Amino acid sequence: MKYARLTQQQLEELHPEFINFLATQSITADEWANIKAEKPQVAEEEIDVFSDLVWEGVLSKVEYLENISELQMHLFHLTEKEMKLFSVKVMNPEIDLRTEEGFGWFKRNFQSDFVEYLTASKAYSEDKNADKFELIKQGAVITKGELYQWFDKIME
């Protein structure tokens, strides 16, 4: 398995797509029930293959990721050729950027000496989607990029 198995909830939400996936392999509903009952390992492998296909589709479309902790934000723009990063570090231990209050403090004080910025970019490895997935495994979430774009404007 290249990425991670989808959760039970994700599999349930993608049930029609999973049925189509099985159909492309000429596996009927009765055959699937039989595989699950008599060959659970084969059923697990099919779910893993489906999970990887879903992840490949999602990762190929991801443009922005965010990883926000108490005192830091890592905002990624995933372009065709490289990963661009805005990194923000808050030097006020009273602040938690994950809260509305803490983020409000940041918006009022983003130009103060209590906030440090770093920008960077990095070329992808041989496997662009694996690079993106690694960021997700480290806690990043897929976003529409509003925060990254806001930083892009104020940093100009």
Structural features, described:
The mean pLDDT is 93. This protein has helices at 8-13, 15-24, 29-38, 40-61, 100-109, 128-137, 146-154; strands spanning 64-68, 72-78, 82-90, 115-123, 141-143. It has two domains: 8-61; 64-154, no CATH class. It is elongated and about 65 Å long. It has a five-stranded antiparallel sheet, sandwiched between helices. It is an alpha+beta fold. Pfam families: DUF6495. This is Histidyl-tRNA synthetase.
The residue fraction in helices comes out at 40-55%
Which strand order spans the largest sheet, edge to edge or round the barrel? 4-3-2-1-5
What's the shape? elongated
**Secondary structure tally: strands:** 5
What proportion strand?
A: 15-25%
What can be said about the biggest beta sheet? 5 strands, antiparallel
Which spans have pLDDT < 50 for at least 5 consecutive residues? none
The total domain count is: 2
- The overall pLDDT average reads 93
Oligomer: single chain
H/E element order: HHHHEEEHEHEH
* Broad structural category: alpha+beta
The rounded distance between the terminal residues' Cα atoms is: 42 Å
Count up the helices. 7
Our Rg estimate from Cα atoms comes to 21 Å
Give a summary of the structure in a few sentences.
By secondary structure, the protein is of the alpha+beta class. The chain folds into two domains: 8-61; 64-154, no CATH class.
Give descriptors for this structure:
156 residues; alpha+beta; 5 strands; 49% helix
